[in-house]
Design goal:
By secondary structure, this protein is mainly α. About 75% of the residues lie in helices and about 0% in strands. The chain has five helices and no strands. α2 runs antiparallel to α3 and α2 packs parallel to α4. The longest helix has 15 residues. It is globular and about 35 Å long.
Length: about 80
């Protein structure tokens, strides 16, 4: 099991214990981006923003993921 797999397993466990943690959703979003799963990443970033709209790292993730069509991405 590689570092990304271990990190994703730890985050999955953390989300099971506390699904309302915006930082954990943000971390999962970044892992998804690293794995090439942009839609899944965006779903986690959006959930983190729903929980805490002021999370700066989430906003960075959304911008990194969808710069050309940010309005559409946030409305999905």
């Amino acid at each position: 099991m590689g570092k990304t797999d271990r990190a994703e397993a730890a985050i999955k466990s953390a989300l099971a214990n506390n699904p309302e943690d915006p930082i954990t959703h943000t971390n999962q979003g970044w892992i998804c981006l690293e794995s090439g799963e942009a839609n899944r990443a965006l779903a986690h970033f959006k959930e983190a923003l729903r929980i805490n709209p002021n999370t700066a790292s989430v906003r960075q993730g959304v911008l990194y993921n969808c710069p050309p069509d940010l309005d559409r991405a946030l409305s999905l």
